[in-house]
């Protein structure tokens, strides 16, 4: 949870192509419902996870605030002092750009499905479309994805001349795409055709009468990927470079066309199962 929170905070800078972070603050809420034993076991691990992720990002945690609260909460602030050449303003998407997504969708569904393993009523709704093993693997994939930094994707935005980007988190893919489109200088709109989704999560969402709105693009993500507008002729190379450096896929999921600063997902988007096939002992290959 600490690592996920830290990665999520850092993505706000990464979405602007800023990869050198000068300082981080950690904001922590200790649950008043914890026993002393639970507090002493859980909180140090969360703090260490946050600090470990910050170290991986090449920065340090130098302060913050801790409060007591009924809810367990962790978050933070990341800051960087940089020149205008070191960040990419998120408002320059151009006609004929394409849209790239750097992490698969479906983390909310994966986490919920994993909890449902202990809830027979809920498990009965999805057991015909997914096995317990597949749910456990999806949960591990979600954890892997949420703790992975968007740092390399952000670095490569400069190399491949990205024009605009946002991170995909609580408002889901469509929510963040709409927010990004709304702030473009040019009269453009975003159209999304492809949805890369953690394997089996679209089937679970469908079995639950689309209660997560996953395919509709409003399922909340936590520490999701970057949604990047890139020149069409450079997007494939951007995805390939991420694959070469990190070993993870990125996908061209849509286009930038002339429009009135809106975003939409087509009626029947192509669902890309991630990974496309299962390999024993491997999460993503």
From TrEMBL:
Keywords: ATP-binding, Kinase, Nucleotide-binding, Selenium, Transferase. Residues 1-78 form the PurM-like N-terminal domain. GO terms for cellular component: cytoplasm. One of its GO terms (biological process) is selenocysteine biosynthetic process. The keyword Transcription regulation does not apply. Gene3D superfamilies: PurM-like C-terminal domain. It comes from the Eukaryota. This is Water dikinase. Residues 97-265 form the PurM-like C-terminal domain. The keyword Transferase applies. One of its GO terms (molecular function) is ATP binding.
